[in-house]
Design brief:
Layout lengths: L4 H20 L1 H4 L11 H20 L4 H14 L1 H10 L5 H26 L3
Length: about 120
């Protein structure tokens, strides 16, 4: 399968932006961390930000793109519980905020598909 290099670049960019926002605005992400995870939420917020940056770097390099894209797909699966937590916690907020929280849930499927598509590409 051939995929334009731009898809990989865009995926790397999305992951990099997400990683940076986890590091510079951790207070937004901390409440999304599922309470079942051990330790402080801030640890998981920073860890996910670092993971997103590492995966972004791997996707950006052609030599590591396949592995990085598969890691991106796994990361998108791994963050689904945080999106569920956010949707649950925001269920009584304004309609606009609920739309954001609920809208994150179905976005995981196309993100996973995109990452797998990049992993299978020859670009």
């Amino acid at each position: 399968m051939t995929t334009r290099r731009g898809e990989a670049t865009a995926l790397a960019g999305l992951l990099a932006v997400a990683g940076v926002t986890h590091l510079v605005r951790p207070g937004f992400y901390d409440p999304m961390v599922p309470r079942a995870l051990p330790g402080p939420a801030r640890f998981w917020t920073y860890a996910s930000g670092v993971a997103e940056l590492a995966v972004a770097a791997a996707v950006a390099r052609p030599a590591t793109r396949r592995t990085g894209a598969l890691a991106a797909a796994a990361l998108f699966v791994a963050v689904l519980p945080a999106n569920v937590q956010m949707a649950h916690d925001w269920r009584r907020r304004s309609p606009a905020q609920r739309a954001v929280a609920y809208g994150r849930l179905p976005m995981q499927a196309p993100l996973i598909w995109w990452a797998v598509r990049v992993a299978r590409s020859r670009s």
